[in-house]
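Structure in, sequence out. Go:
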């Protein structure tokens, strides 16, 4: 009988681009996980905002098992029923007229940025190619998406990077006015910056971006890879703000843990991605689309979405109570069930130190950069799990503060 893999096998066999925790989870149910030794953890990380319905949700398991007995893969020489059903569902639930499927958020953003440039080229000419993005933004790991992203650390050493990309200051409309002109093809923005520190956009800022894009005949692109599919308490965060983009990207929670991404756009823009201009081998995969349809139909209900807002208040109440006792946070912020707790000046840059202590207490959490403790739990996490998870977090923070 073969031996179970160990954490040491990571160093032995895998490229060292990650530094995973020593624990290896092997089973999950709801918002709880168990490792190789049978130890239990409460999951506030949610696979980085992916496991929107927790682990092994019955609706997703049923969809996957049902499709597994029918059809796994075809190629884009053909279409398939799950892809068509998912496209119809997303179009009917959003501003969009058309959907494009792929396997990840990075791929969805790659398609969006290519479409924006291609549309501008087709509609206005080759000169209209400038993309405006924002500092501290994150849009994926392809060379194009890290270049649009506003964190140079992700593109250093991979140059030369694509050109004609400029970065403004998030939530600062004047900084966009200084950069935008008639050569701008698109403004790309996260309605809530995730990796950049869990920073929600101000409503006036997004409304201002919409007006500037209209004025300069540029497309407004919303990256909702992390904020989408119920995370904000709305199916998509643009609905919370009342600002409609021309292109929207979605992934992470879209498949509830199964790899899938999508780009949504309008009939005005979609024709520029004509036959042969772009593609994805696994885009529209029947297994992925069947699971994603089940996820969207389960999440986009009044019960789940209103529950997100109630749980947001519960999380914030706990975090603020912990802070009153330990003084470790400067600010608690976020929308829905994407929350960030920025470290107080005395602990600046040390958010990551809390994670292994939390694991020892039986809690999984995240960071968003060096200074923000991040949480992106299941949208349907029980109050019992929230309360117990926060008790474990407080024990970890108590140890962190004592050892500081």
């Amino acid at each position: 009988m073969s031996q179970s893999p160990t954490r040491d096998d990571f160093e032995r066999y895998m490229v060292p681009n990650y530094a995973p925790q020593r624990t290896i989870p092997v089973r999950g149910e709801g918002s709880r996980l168990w490792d190789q030794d049978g130890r239990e953890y409460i999951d506030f990380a949610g696979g980085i905002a992916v496991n929107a319905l927790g682990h092994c949700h019955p609706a997703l398991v049923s969809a996957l098992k049902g499709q597994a007995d029918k059809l796994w893969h075809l190629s884009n020489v053909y279409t398939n029923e799950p892809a068509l059903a998912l496209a119809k569902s997303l179009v009917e639930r959003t501003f969009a007229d058309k959907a494009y499927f792929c396997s990840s958020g990075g791929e969805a953003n790659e398609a969006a940025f290519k479409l924006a440039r291609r549309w501008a080229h087709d509609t206005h000419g080759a000169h209209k190619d400038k993309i405006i993005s924002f500092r501290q933004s994150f849009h994926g790991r392809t060379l194009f998406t890290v270049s649009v992203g506003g964190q140079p650390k992700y593109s250093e050493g991979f140059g030369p990077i694509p050109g004609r990309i400029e970065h403004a200051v998030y939530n600062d409309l004047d900084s966009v006015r200084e950069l935008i002109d008639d050569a701008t093809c698109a403004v790309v923005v996260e309605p809530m910056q995730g990796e950049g520190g869990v920073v929600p956009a101000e409503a006036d800022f997004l409304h201002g971006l919409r007006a500037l894009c209209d004025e300069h005949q540029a497309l407004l692109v919303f990256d909702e890879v992390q904020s989408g599919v119920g995370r904000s308490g709305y199916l998509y965060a643009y609905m919370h703000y009342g600002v409609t983009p021309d292109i929207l990207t979605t992934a992470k929670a879209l498949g509830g843990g199964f790899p899938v991404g999508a780009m949504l756009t309008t009939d005005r823009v979609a024709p520029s991605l004509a036959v042969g201009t772009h593609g994805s081998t696994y885009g529209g995969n029947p297994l992925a689309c069947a699971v994603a349809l089940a996820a969207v139909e389960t999440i986009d209900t009044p019960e789940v979405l209103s529950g997100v807002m109630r749980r947001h208040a519960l999380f914030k109440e706990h975090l603020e109570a912990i802070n009153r006792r330990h003084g470790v946070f400067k600010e608690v912020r976020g929308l829905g069930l994407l929350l960030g707790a920025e470290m107080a000046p005395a602990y600046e840059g040390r958010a990551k130190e809390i994670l292994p202590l939390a694991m020892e207490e039986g809690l999984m959490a995240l960071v968003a950069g060096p200074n923000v403790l991040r949480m992106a739990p299941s949208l349907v996490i029980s109050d019992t799990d929230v309360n117990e998870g926060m008790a474990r977090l407080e024990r970890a923070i108590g140890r962190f503060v004592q050892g500081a």
